[in-house]
Amino acid sequence: MLLLQAAFPFFGAEARTSPVQAAANDSARHDKVIMLVVDALSVDDFTAHRWTHLRAVASHGAIGLMSTRAAGPHTSPAAHVTIGAGARSRAGSLTGLTLMSDEVYGGAPAARLYETLTGLSPTGAVALFIGLSQLLSLAGFAVPTFSDSGELAGPTTSLPSMPGALGQSLTNAGRKTAAIGNSDIFSAEGDNVSWTPRRHAALLAMDAYGRVPLGDVGRSMLLDDPDWPFGLRTDYEATWDTFVSVFDEADVIAVELGDLARLDAYSDWMPPERMG
String of b and e for 185-194 (b: at least 16 CB within 10 Å)? Predict the structure, then answer.
């Protein structure tokens, strides 16, 4: 199936990229965590023998299954929030809404929108989670605030189960995170068709402010292709180039490969026999 095989160029690119290959050959630099977010990938798909490239990559690390139970409905967004929070969490209608700081949404630059909605500074972030206030409200917390020294203040410093706890813990330890890629789709309501951001990898990399310091989760990670679900597919060259650009600086990198998620979402648009 073409959508399953599309990930292969991304994995195979390691051999031709010197910074990553150098790290692979240097045991002293094996201090990176790389999370591949492939939503809608089943266990049967993952263990199938035809996935030779994926199995080859996995042979250099470890494979395990994690059942992520959310606090509310067991949806994919809630699972990503739960992993980032370290405790069962809920997802809201804005959970996929992470934007590059210079993206325009609703007629406003994301950085300005983020500051208006949260009262927080977007400084130091390439991507911003616009749904922060909603997500924190669902978790029972207020929006985190700054202390006089510019550090995270309030109850969030002692509550590791809050959204963004993983990224915040890494930030507190002097580590950096990156998020790359998306599962964006177009959605229809009546006669209106609109672009819908779905950037769940960012939920794993963001800090308690909803900020991601490195990577690219924007439209530049996609190619327009009318033969693919929603006319979009992952640009693996752009994804790999971004991965290489953040590799030296980032300690934890979440890469979202969204083609399968788009195919899964496309099931409402086409008959089951076409999905097979």
Answer: beeeeeeeee
